[in-house]
Structure formats: structure tokens, C-alpha cells
Amino acid sequence: MSRSSFILSLCLLFSGFVLHAQVEPSAAEYTFKEGSYGGIGKWFMGREIAAVMSYRGMDWLERNSRPKEENTITLIANLDLQPGDVVADIGAGSGYHVFKMAPMVSKGQIYAVDIQPEMLAAIRTKMETERSTNVIPVEGDIQSVNLPENSINKVLMVDVYHEFEFPLEMMASVKKALKPDGRVYLIEYRGEDPNVAIKKLHKMTLDQAVKEMNAAGFQLVKNIDNLPLQHCMIFEKTE
């Protein structure tokens, strides 16, 4: 083999190693493989992302047993809402938590964010019946919450983060919308607890949630352990 041929072979071999290194996914990238029932076949940091619950499940969100099952009064008390707070309920659904919080921030606002127009229509109907003047429905998309920059004191996400098709992008948009001292209240069914009778895809462990939020630029401040079924995890921006 000539010297030039030998050098060319080395270059091709080296470029193959570089290409291989480039296509190997990092821990904070998305991967795709065969999914389970109720999942989307897309994985993030070892967790399969769940399919979004349809607006057709709205009745389940509004079920009469929910206050007792989830202790929703305590959940909202954990946010320590102040009259002037500007709050974003991400994945607000039919507005179950929105209209409990709205009177508590009488001098502030509640952004009710959802990606399903049918959910937002239900919220607008409730705005009329509840005569709420500080609720603002917002149609988000799969990569953004579509909220004003540096405008939010507190973000509430109840059993919705695990359904984000693009969790990194969504949390980047949340981070942008948060004020410097803003907080994220991440509520998820406890994945560590086999007695929580929710499908595995719709539960998260504390360790998994912290790992993913760290990758998105958030740090855990506290995990309030006073809910019967769910974690109440409080995060702040790392910068």
C-alpha cells in the first residue's frame, strides 16, 4: 500500500469513529423505539413519554372523588399563593385547579395553558359561569407554553409533565416565562409507590423528575410530602 493510500485509510477510519460518536445519543437527548400501550415510542433519559390524555377524559378531571383522593386543598395550599401572584397552570385541562386559585390571586392573574382547543373552550365557559376576570386562556403547542417572557411567579403542572412530547423545549419556554425568583410546582403521581393505582407511564419517581429537571436547568428546592398520591416537587432556575 502506498503512503497516500495508507493515510487515506486512516482518515476514513478516523472519520468513522467521529461519525459514530456524533450519532450516539447523550443522556439528555430523545431516543425512539417500540413503545408500550399508552406511550408514544419516544424516550427521554430512560423514560417513555406518555400520550396526552384526550379532552374526552374531561369528566375524570372533574370527578367528585378528586378532592379526597388527591387532597386538592392541600395541593393548592402548598403554592402559598399571594394576592398579586401571576400563575401559569400548564396543562390546565378543564380548569379544575385554575378556578380554585383565581380568587386567591385577586390582584394577579392565572394563565390557563393547554394544547387542546376543547379544554380551552371548557375554561372559557367556566369563566362566564364563575365570572372570573383574572383568568387568561392560552393555547400552547408541543414545544412552547406561549407565555410572555419574565412574567410568571409560579408555574403549576399537575400530572402533565410526563406527557410533554418535547420536555426539554417545553421547560426551556417555562424557564423563559419565569421571573428570576419564580418557582415550578411539579405534581406527579409517585412512581415509587406500587399502591398508587395509576398506570406506570403516568407516574414519575422523584429521582427521575429531578434528573430531567436538572437537564432542563432547574434545581429541586423541596419535595413536599403531604399529598396522598402525588409528589409535590418545587423547582427553581439554576442560574
TrEMBL record:
<protein>
    <submittedName>
        <fullName>Class I SAM-dependent methyltransferase</fullName>
    </submittedName>
</protein>
<keyword id="KW-0489">Methyltransferase</keyword>
<dbReference type="InterPro" id="IPR025714">
    <property type="entry name" value="Methyltranfer_dom"/>
</dbReference>
<dbReference type="GO" id="GO:0008168">
    <property type="term" value="F:methyltransferase activity"/>
</dbReference>
<keyword id="KW-0808">Transferase</keyword>
<dbReference type="GO" id="GO:0032259">
    <property type="term" value="P:methylation"/>
</dbReference>
<dbReference type="InterPro" id="IPR029063">
    <property type="entry name" value="SAM-dependent_MTases_sf"/>
</dbReference>
<dbReference type="Pfam" id="PF13847">
    <property type="entry name" value="Methyltransf_31"/>
</dbReference>
<feature type="domain" description="Methyltransferase">
    <location>
        <begin position="83"/>
        <end position="202"/>
    </location>
</feature>
<keyword id="KW-0732">Signal</keyword>
<feature type="signal peptide">
    <location>
        <begin position="1"/>
        <end position="20"/>
    </location>
</feature>
